[in-house]
Amino acid sequence: MSSSVSVPPAHPDLTTDRLVLRSWTPAEAAAVLDGARPSHWADDFPAEGDQVIAALFTEHPDWLGPYGHRLIIERSTGLVIGSIGLFWPPSDGAVEIGYGVVPSRRGHGYAPEATRALTAHALTAPGVHTVHATVELANPPSIRVLEKSGFRRHSTQPDQPQPDQNVARYQAH
User: Fold this and answer.
1) Quick count: other Cβ atoms within 10 Å of Cβ 21?
2) Which candidate among 34, 47, 114, 140 keeps its CA 20 to 30 Å from the CA of 106?
3) Contacts of 151 (CB under 8 A, 6+ apart)
4) Which mean pLDDT values do the consecutive 10-residue runs of the chain (173 residues) have?
5) Residue 157: which residues within 8 A CB-CB, separation 6 or more?
6) Rg for the chain (alpha carbons), in Å?
7) pTM of the prediction?
8) Nearest CA to 104 among 41, 147, 34, 23?
9) Across the strands, what pairs with 157?
10) For residue 7, what pLDDT is reported?
């Protein structure tokens, strides 16, 4: 493992009963893109979504800020098991959240636990009053995560010129 991967992140961790949500370091993003396998990652991390996000950090540096993307770390093992993030900056007081937990750790309630924690954190940001998520209706597990996190279906994207009836917008309440 490269010593640069263990450089502490710039922003305070968010800690829940079973998880730590820690900001990505630039070295960790580079490791995802380079295909490195640090020992503190679950065997099935990163997932495809994590690779997509890591590739976008250069284009969206705010995503590495205090209200940006975080790695999901299982407290009992210290392993990175997924990622969660806010697509910063907010638009009209609203910010979108996205999340993913690796297959080996799904079904344990980690995604709702992380989503509740990051949503609460987002609502402490100046000017943010709404956290929302866009989810494919063909993805019932993701819909359940949002519902367990206190989100409710708000719309099927009516702001789009031709609404996509395959996705819905959920908002935290």
Assistant:
1) 23
2) 34
3) 115, 131, 132, 133, 170, 171, 172, 173
4) 50 96 94 95 96 95 92 98 96 96 97 98 95 95 97 72 76 88
5) 134, 163, 164, 167, 168, 169
6) 16
7) 0.89
8) 41
9) none
10) 52
